[in-house]
Specification:
heterodimer; A: alpha/beta; Rossmann fold; Dihydrodipicolinate Reductase, domain 2; 6-stranded mixed beta sheet; B: alpha+beta; Alpha-Beta Plaits; 2 domains; 4-stranded antiparallel beta sheet; 4 helices; 8 strands; 30% helix; elongated
């Protein structure tokens, strides 16, 4: 099965490396970054493309654009891993639309388009008899969508809640364990590369809220947008508040929760017993799914990182390979 | 609850100990000894508060110890839930905040611990609310949420369910 990768940052490179290293029956035939592109229908030399990217900052030739790749017939599945834009979803949204309309499968880690236009993209995929998969958009390496769609197929899901942002979890863990102030813990997270220079998206709970929107729409078809989520971030949490919770063997974590029956869709700092399965350390994510047949299922794993995100993308690609077979 | 036990030294302790083992609090003990009865058993009435769901543990402990439970009175749940408030708690009239709960008649502020780090810095407080049932606790939380909104507090609640 032939793969085109749009976006050649750490995630895109991670996916290419895994495909090159493992025997997956996947062939990378096109790659584009923001400045260049390269197409070879018979399969690219990934090592050479990676080397070129490292040396020149470009994966291919400046004249070849993303549009050239998408409109070509050199691929079966588009892997869309360009930088995300939560407000417009562009340019990724346009790429995904074009690929689906052209009868190509799409796998993406891009939260923007999925959170903004889930219904439209889902319908477009169905219309063109292809599939759109987005495991990597929620909780990185944790196979949350696969678990919900296949692992516990047939269950009614009544509620979903958990730790959806590793940066916030790291900050709260450090505040609890070392008694750091919020500012100190944030500074440390930045130094370790866990927080962006502008940490607003993470610490104000927006990143977690976007993931809730994706889940609310994908699992329950609720047609929600970011504006529907009640969001409180962790930037107002004091170390004294955490110390007060600790006195009773409790702690504070940023919890995202979807409970459709009670009309709850929110992200907020929440008190949990320290023994609770959702109290995970450092940058881990954890999600509990409440179901009618299986009871509660809690998944814990790494929510970000190059190989972790690649793991989710590869799983989606192999799922498509197994369902749709080879087309070359 | 009314209990029946052997009239021998140390028996009262064996009745009281299991209550503290489940984290309970004894409110009163009535220990009656009736020499006329001519039995070697005596009756004890205990009124206590125990954590939600621990009554079965307590009763099975009594069974193991051979204490006969004659009657368990009305089980009045004393539910407690804590929230943490962060903000300018003192300057926004802390007693007014507490009164909003205490004046409901169905819930009361049972405990308050506060940390005030520095002048002009927001303080943090853990407030424990006590009531007879979870429904009333939730009603009290709704009031507290409105107060928090009005006074600009961040209110951190426990995870519900389970």
């Amino acid at each position: 099965m032939r793969i085109a990768i749009i976006g050649f940052g750490s995630v895109g490179r991670g996916v290419a490396e895994v495909i090159a290293a493992k025997n997956t029956d996947l062939t990378v035939t096109a790659v584009a970054d923001s400045r260049s592109g390269i197409i070879d229908g018979s399969g690219l030399d990934i090592a050479a493309v990676l080397r070129n990217k490292k040396e020149t900052g470009m994966c291919g030739t400046p004249g070849i654009t993303v549009s050239d790749i998408i409109s070509s017939d050199a691929y079966d599945v588009l892997v869309e891993v360009s930088p995300t834009n939560a407000e417009t979803g562009e340019p990724a949204l346009g790429y995904i639309r074009e690929a689906l309309a052209g009868g190509k499968h799409v796998v993406t880690s891009n939260k923007g388009p999925i959170a903004l236009k889930f219904e439209e993209l889902h319908a477009l995929a169905a219309e063109n008899h292809v599939t759109l998969r987005y495991e990597a958009t929620v909780c990185g390496a944790i196979p949350l969508m696969h678990t919900i769609e296949h692992g516990i197929a047939g269950n009614e899901i009544s509620r979903l809640y958990g730790v959806f942002n590793g940066t916030c979890n790291y900050i709260l863990t450090r505040m609890a364990e070392e008694g750091l102030t919020y500012k100190q813990a944030l500074l440390e997270a930045r130094e370790l590369g866990y927080a962006e220079a502008d940490p607003t998206y993470d610490v104000r709970g927006i990143d977690a809220a976007i993931k809730l929107v994706i889940l609310a729409n994908a699992v329950w078809g609720l047609k929600k947008s970011l504006a529907d989520v009640d969001i409180i971030g962790i930037d107002g949490v004091t170390s004294a508040a955490i110390a007060l919770a600790e006195r009773e063997d409790q702690t504070i974590r940023l919890i995202g929760e979807i409970d459709p029956a009670n009309e709850i869709l929110r992200v907020s700092p929440t008190i949990l017993p320290k023994s609770h399965p959702l109290v995970v350390r450092d940058t881990l994510n954890a999600v509990t799914i409440e179901t009618d047949l299986a009871g509660e299922i809690t998944l814990i794993g790494k929510g970000a990182g190059s190989s972790e995100t690649a793991s989710a993308i590869i799983a989606d690609l192999l799922f498509i390979r197994d369902c749709y077979g080879r087309r070359d | 609850m009314k209990l029946e036990m052997k009239d021998s030294p140390g028996q009262l302790v064996s009745v009281i100990q299991p209550i503290s083992d489940v984290g309970g609090n004894i409110l009163s003990v009535i220990h009656e000894r009736d020499p006329e009865a001519g039995r070697d058993l005596l009756d004890v009435q205990i009124m206590c508060e125990i954590p939600e769901g621990s009554l079965d543990t307590l009763l099975s402990e009594y069974r193991i110890q051979g204490v006969n439970v004659l009657r368990v009175g009305e089980e009045r749940f004393l539910v407690r839930r804590s929230v943490i408030l962060i903000g300018h708690l003192i300057h926004t009239d802390i007693s007014d905040t507490i009164d909003k709960i205490d004046s409901t008649g169905y819930a009361e502020v049972h405990e308050l611990s506060m940390v005030m780090p520095a002048i002009n810095e927001p303080s943090s407080a853990k407030i424990t609310i006590k009531s007879d049932c979870l429904k009333d606790i939730n009603r009290a939380f709704t009031i507290l949420r409105d107060v928090a909104k009005d006074k600009g507090f961040l209110m951190i609640e426990p995870l519900e369910g389970n």
